[in-house]
Amino acid sequence: MTQLDHHVHSISPEVAGSRFLKFIAFLYGIAAYLVFFVTIVYAIGFVMGLVVPKTIDTGPDTPTAEAVIINLLLMTLFAVQHSVMARQRFKAWWTQFVPKPVERSTYVLFASLSLLLLFWQWRPLPSVIWDVTSPDLAVTLVTVSLTGWVLVFTSTFIINHFELFGLHQVTNHLVGKEAAPPRFKTPLLYKFVRHPIYLGFIIAFWAAPTMTAGHLLFAAVTTAYIFVGIALEEHDLVDLFGDEYRQYKQRVSMLIPWRRSV
Question: Domain segments of the chain: what residues?
Answer without folding.
Answer: 3-251
